[in-house]
Specification:
Layout: H1 3-17, H2 21-31, H3 40-53, H4 69-82, H5 85-97, E1 100-101, H6 102-106, H7 113-125, E2 129-134, E3 137-142, H8 145-174
Antiparallel strand pairs: 1-3, 2-3
Helix pairs in contact: 1-8, 2-3, 2-8, 3-8, 4-7
Length: about 180
């Protein structure tokens, strides 16, 4: 669709969603991979990445009036850990390949081990990984329980975007087809 038809469709999208382009981008990415058959980790990863990119527009749990005490600080720590692409990649590697020594993880990145160790420390402090010593090696294991907090926080947003996209679909279904197509 080109010209006036494309402009009309874009206006319909904005009208139906009632949101900014940045928020629409967050919703589209949060919904990507969240369809039937997608694992919850995929939806959570996509949504967290989108929220991290739109950080100024989204208030994480535990900040302002929505958070309370130690629980809010813990949630902030989890979201801060997930905001970094390297740390999300470490979590993906541990999820897909199981527990691994630091060197095996380091082999996946173009950085020195001390830099990776800092990322692992942040993940460990957030409770997203655990460390076990096996001789001279440190084996890291994914601890997925804190991700349930992320999923709980994202659930209302998933419902919000599902409703918005349904409204958009209904609006587009009611619009007459463009005879130029």
């Amino acid at each position: 669709m080109t010209g006036i038809g494309a402009g009309r469709e874009a206006a319909a999208v904005r009208a139906a969603s009632g949101t900014s382009a940045a928020a629409a981008s967050v919703g589209a990415r949060a919904g990507a991979g969240a369809g039937p058959g997608a694992g919850p980790a995929t939806a959570v990863e996509a949504a967290v990445e989108a929220l991290a990119e739109a950080a100024p527009a989204v208030e994480p749990p535990g900040s302002g009036a929505s958070g309370s005490g130690a629980s809010g600080a813990r949630e902030d720590q989890i979201f801060a850990a997930l905001a970094n692409a390297t740390r999300r990649e470490v979590l993906r590697l541990l999820r897909e390949q199981g527990p691994q020594p630091v060197q095996a993880l380091a082999d996946h990145f173009a950085m020195r081990r001390p830099s990776l160790s800092e990322h692992l420390k942040v993940l460990r402090e957030a409770g997203l990984v655990s460390e076990e010593r096996a001789g001279r090696q440190r084996i890291y294991r994914l601890e997925a329980a804190p991700l349930a907090d992320v999923q709980d926080w994202l659930h209302p947003y998933e419902r919000f975007w599902r409703d918005r996209l349904k409204g958009l679909g209904d609006l587009l279904d009611r619009m007459p087809d463009d005879p130029e197509s």
